[in-house]
Write a structure and sequence with these properties.
Shape: elongated
CATH topology of the largest domain: Rossmann fold
Oligomer: single chain
Number of helices: 8
Distance between the termini: 87 Å
Structural class: alpha+beta
Strand content: 25-35%
Radius of gyration: 30 Å
CATH class of the largest domain: Alpha Beta
Largest sheet: 6 strands, mixed
CATH architecture of the largest domain: 3-Layer(aba) Sandwich
Strand order of the largest sheet: 11-10-12-16-17-21
Number of strands: 22
């Protein structure tokens, strides 16, 4: 008969082996709140500790590897053997060891390159542990600071894509042109907001391929059949199309003197070809009008009649088409009278946080449906900018001057200032009502 004490000893030994030898080590967990700022909490690494950090998709798409810098204080062991640190990423999809040494220990920062293919969009687990050769006794060290060397990548060369250009020209000659793109009405006001300076060199320099493909539908109407003709809309449209294609490598479709059916056909083609990572810019230069009773705004194609709305394009029609387009970012730019009816109202100051680079990544990551208008509920000038309208001249100059990857909200302040100094109209920039906007923004990437 076996004494009961021996059974108890056997049971205790089995439980100890199961819990200690076979169960995984429970690591202490730290949360790195902002990947763009250093983690400064002191972390003692003995057996294992986990650092959880949230990384955005566009950051991972912008570079092939992220460089993690480990700043450390010192080591503790029994004086024999070599102390080695081990970094494991996302449960051993990536691991790397680094040596502190023993008698020649240094506190110089250690930099580890982590391939972005081993990281994921969202929360990543960085597990730090220590190991000492020559003994079963484990050493330890203290991390004093963790930081990423975030990418500041030069723009890469991208081959230009041929633009498909469609043009509809009227045979009639341009007669007396109106000096405004519609009748007059009261002005809107707007609030100022802080922007990153255009072309200042302070903006982010990320990898352009991370931002998707760019498409533009540019419309310029001069030769109206039933109402007063314009002087500069066609010239404006041609200049905008050329700049977008040459400097920003947009795939451009150009419509000149377009009818209602031609505009809707072009929009329908865009709807069929764009996917969820694409960017679409629609630029309209031509007559606009407003119904004084309903306060609805309209674009007027070249076949529009002043007293008959049959061929007018209502803002609601534009909004409806935007809902159906799959592109991640859509920007409407309207240089016409009463174009401010497209916005939700006077624009508001944007509350920014983080670096310019972080802001652009955040804006690019979210869906946007925004509109930049040459004025509010007011007539706008068809001239005043040399061969261009005042607004078109300001828009073209601002995009030509820009050398940074930058969001439209940052460009807007420069455009607005240039317009109000030269005309009695105030551009507006805002999200489009009822079109599926999700707090993102259109981002321009010079190539």
């Amino acid at each position: 008969m076996v004494p009961p004490g021996r059974y108890l000893n056997g049971i205790c030994a089995f439980v100890f082996a199961t819990l200690v030898l076979h169960f995984p080590v429970l690591a202490k967990e730290y949360h790195w709140e902002k990947y763009s700022a250093p983690l400064t909490e002191k972390i003692r690494v003995a057996s294992a500790v986990d650092v959880m950090v949230d990384l955005p998709e566009l950051l991972l798409a912008a570079t092939e590897d992220l460089r993690l810098v480990i700043e450390h204080l010192g080591i503790g062991n029994d004086g024999s053997g070599e102390l080695r640190g081990i970094l494991t990423v996302n449960n051993q999809s990536f691991w790397k060891s680094y040596t502190f040494g023993n008698s020649k220990f240094t506190e110089d920062p250690i930099t580890i390159a982590i391939k972005t293919k081993d990281l994921k969009s969202g929360v990543n687990k960085l597990r730090f542990s220590s190991q000492r050769s020559g003994s079963t006794v484990q050493g330890w060290y203290t991390i004093t600071r963790l930081r990423f060397n975030l990418p500041k990548l030069a723009n890469i060369n991208v081959q230009p894509v041929e633009a498909s250009q469609t043009a509809h020209a009227s045979n009639s000659k341009i007669a007396d042109a109106s000096s405004k793109r519609g009748p007059s009405i009261a002005k809107s006001s707007l609030a100022n907001s802080e922007k990153y300076p255009v072309g200042s060199g302070s903006g982010p320099r990320l990898k352009p391929l991370a931002f998707g493909n760019y498409h533009a539908l540019v419309i310029g109407n001069n030769d109206y059949q039933n109402i007063s003709r314009l002087k500069t809309a066609v010239t404006d449209a041609k200049a905008v199309a050329a700049l977008l294609q040459q400097k920003y490598k947009f795939n451009v479709s150009l419509l000149l003197n377009a009818t209602r059916s031609e505009i809707f056909l072009a929009v329908s083609k865009m709807r069929g070809m764009l996917n969820r990572t694409d960017n679409l810019l629609v630029y309209y230069a031509g007559h606009g009008n407003i119904d004084p009773e309903t306060q609805r705004g309209y674009w007027l194609p070249v076949d529009a009649e002043r007293s008959n709305k049959a061929n007018w394009i209502a803002n609601e029609d534009i909004t409806s088409e935007l809902k159906a387009i799959k592109a991640k970012h859509v920007l409407i730019i309207a240089d016409s009278c009463y174009s401010g009816t497209l916005t939700r109202g006077p624009d508001v100051a944007t509350m920014r946080s983080g670096s310019a680079e972080e802001w652009v990544l955040r804006m690019a990551a979210r869906r946007s449906r925004t509109v930049l208008t040459s004025g509010g509920l007011e007539p706008v000038l068809d001239a005043g900018g040399g061969r261009h309208s005042v607004f078109a001249q300001a828009f073209l100059r601002t995009l030509k001057d820009n050398e940074q990857i930058i969001d439209m909200d940052s460009l807007y302040e420069t455009i607005r200032r240039r317009v109000v100094l030269n005309a009695r109209q105030t551009p507006l920039y805002s999200d489009i009502r009822f079109a599926g906007h999700d707090d993102g923004d259109f981002v321009f990437v010079p190539r």
